[in-house]
Write a structure and sequence with these properties.
By secondary structure, the protein is an alpha/beta fold. Among the domains are: 136 residues, P-loop containing nucleotide triphosphate hydrolases (Rossmann fold), CATH 3.40.50.300; 65 residues, no CATH class. Helices cover 34% and strands 20% of the residues. It has a 6-stranded mixed beta sheet with strand order 6-7-8-3-9-10, sandwiched between helices. A 4-stranded antiparallel beta sheet has the order 2-1-4-5, covered by helices on one side. Helix 4 runs parallel beside helix 5 and helix 6 crosses helix 7. The relative contact order is 0.18.
């Protein structure tokens, strides 16, 4: 089953220069996958990873991606980041075809991959500096973003002096420093304990509400997807296809006890049924 979801096409508008730290204009950050297919591996016998993905994500939407292990969730995200080249189809942001990484797409991985020899402030300010922003302005941007993620007091600390949750907050601030149109997140809270994970979800939602960036968030955690997303994409076992597209109608801001709502548990059960069935399918494919 291959789903295509249409969104109104806005006229092309160019946003602020990297480093201006403004909320993205409403018409920027529109993502389009059209029949995107990805094959990886040996040239003689490449393996089909993603099969004809067609998808529209409007500006400012928070989209979570769920699916069994090995279904291609991270490949989907890496293709949008420009790290993986599609074998077929077209992938675009605001009408511009994606072929390489770019500052218009910020990326946050499970490992924050900070430069250990640089201070927290220097890590966050580096992107604007590389984009040509003056050093004092880059520092201002870094300090403002660190304030947004609750780390104003740790600007001069080094990554090794921070907890895992703090390091991931620095990673989010760094990804936002060039004012991207799209924020790509690959299981960023997967290595954190439950309490820290919950806190980080609140931090992320607060920053997202303020900045208005489009988010594509890969996760294995169904509760996390329902808590965070405006929309949840369910992927099939390999090769990855979109088999369901679920709207999360729960109003924002979402309360701490959102998981006790009937709507939450209805969506959670729908996701669980898909994941269980696709995980069984994936297991059967590899059974000897």
């Amino acid at each position: 089953m291959n789903l295509h979801h249409s969104a109104a096409t806005a006229p092309e508008v160019r946003g602020p220069m990297p480093g201006t730290l403004e909320a993205a204009p409403a018409r920027l950050g529109n993502v389009n996958f059209h029949e995107v297919t990805i094959r990886l591996g040996a040239r003689a016998q490449p393996r089909l990873i993603l099969d004809r993905i067609s998808l529209d994500i409007p500006s400012g939407q928070f989209v979570c991606v769920l699916g069994p292990s090995g279904c291609g969730k991270s490949t989907l995200l890496n293709a949008l980041a420009g790290f993986v080249t599609p074998s077929g189809g077209r992938l675009a942001v605001d009408g511009d075809t994606i072929s390489t990484p770019g500052a218009d797409r910020g990326v946050v991985f499970q490992d924050p991959t900070l430069f250990p020899w640089k201070t927290v402030l220097a890590n966050v300010s580096l992107g604007p500096l590389l984009a040509g922003v003056a050093s004092d302005e880059a520092e201002r941007i870094g300090r403002k973003l660190l304030g947004r993620v609750g780390l104003s007091s740790r600007c001069e600390s080094f990554p090794k002096q921070l907890s895992g949750g703090m390091q991931q907050r620095v990673g989010i601030a760094r990804a936002l420093a060039n004012n991207p149109r799209v924020l790509l997140m690959d299981e960023p809270f997967g290595a954190l304990d439950a309490q820290t994970r919950s806190m980080m979800q609140h931090v992320l939602l607060d920053v997202w509400a303020e900045v208005g960036v489009t988010v594509l968030f890969v996760t294995h955690d169904i509760d996390e997807a329902v808590t965070l997303g405006d929309r949840i994409l369910i992927m099939s076992a390999s090769p990855g296809r979109i088999i369901d597209d679920i709207t999360v109608p729960i109003a924002r801001p979402r309360a701490d006890d959102v998981m006790f709502l009937a709507e939450f548990n209805h969506i959670k059960r729908r996701c669980f049924d898909h994941i269980r069935r696709e995980s069984m399918s994936a297991f059967a494919q590899h059974e000897v």
